[in-house]
Write a structure and sequence with these properties.
Strand order of the largest sheet: 2-1-3-4-5-6-7
Number of strands: 7
Number of helices: 8
Number of domains: 1
Low-confidence stretches: 1-33
Largest sheet: 7 strands, mixed
Mean pLDDT: 85
Strand content: 5-15%
Bound molecules: zinc ion
Helix content: 25-40%
Distance between the termini: 34 Å
Order of helices and strands: HHHHEEHHHEHEEEE
Oligomer: single chain
Structural class: alpha+beta
């Protein structure tokens, strides 16, 4: 699969590539200037990605009829590097990539498997939904930031992601598990929070003022706290973790 098949890639923003690897995350508990600068640099990139996702979504909605606009306004767009639109729709128009739910589901399952010596974070558990269309987990796998996670991993470049709706519980679980099982740092900004998913399984949540509002705890068995909003859609909005 190459970028031509998947959709257009933003050439003008190549410079933000490799952000995660160039800006190692230091715990916010270590209040050194360098740590703060690294995190701020990542969050700046996440803001750029978020703005690009928002702008692209607005431009897309403007191309639709009033009825379609209402329907599609429930969708979600994620950036950066590629631009992804949530949902099953085949042959999505440019600039959206064409990753289908089965591809991202397969990718997630392969990349979040538990190995015997890993125990801090569970593997991603596929969650069914009434609109799965015959493949359990397909609905949640069509979420736009999961499409980008797959493409960024294929590129070896986990640049920060901006997404136009609150990350759902399933995506939070998936990203936490993915960062842990693949030893990568992934940063996601949604309308309310920034989340830094770390290779240790820890997740730091910052509000839009960049104040640390949550850091996942570890229980007595060494298990990292999973997200709280894992099942009920209405509870996703505004919940830090
Ligand atoms: Zn989601």
């Amino acid at each position: 699969m190459n970028s031509d098949e998947l959709g257009s890639k933003e050439k003008s923003k190549e410079s933000i590539g490799k952000v995660a690897s160039e800006c190692p995350i230091t715990s916010a508990d270590e209040s050194g200037l360098d740590a703060g600068k690294s995190i701020n640099s990542l969050l700046d990139k996440a803001d750029e990605a978020y703005q690009r996702a928002e702008d692209t979504f607005e431009e897309y909605l403007d191309t639709l009829s009033p009825a379609k606009r209402v329907e599609h306004s429930m969708k979600c767009v994620a950036a950066d590097g590629y631009i992804a639109l949530s949902g099953y729709q085949e042959n999505k128009p440019a600039p959206f990539v064409n990753v289908n739910g089965e591809q991202s589901l397969d990718f997630l399952q392969k990349h979040t498997k538990q190995s015997p010596d890993e125990n801090a974070v569970k593997e991603y558990k596929v969650r069914g939904h009434y609109s799965d269309k015959g493949v359990k987990g397909k609905h949640f796998a069509t979420h736009s930031e999961k499409q980008l996670l797959m493409l960024h991993h294929m590129d070896g470049d986990h640049r920060p992601i901006g997404v136009t709706r609150d990350q759902c519980g399933d995506c939070r679980e998936a990203f936490q598990s993915f960062a842990y099982h693949n030893d990568v740092t992934v940063v996601v900004r949604d309308p309310n929070f920034y989340r830094i998913y770390q290779p240790s399984g820890m997740v730091e949540v910052y509000d839009l003022d960049r104040k640390l509002v949550h850091k996942t705890s570890v229980d007595k068995n060494g298990m990292v706290e999973p997200p709280s909003a894992s099942t009920v859609a209405a509870h996703y909005t505004g919940r830090p973790w």
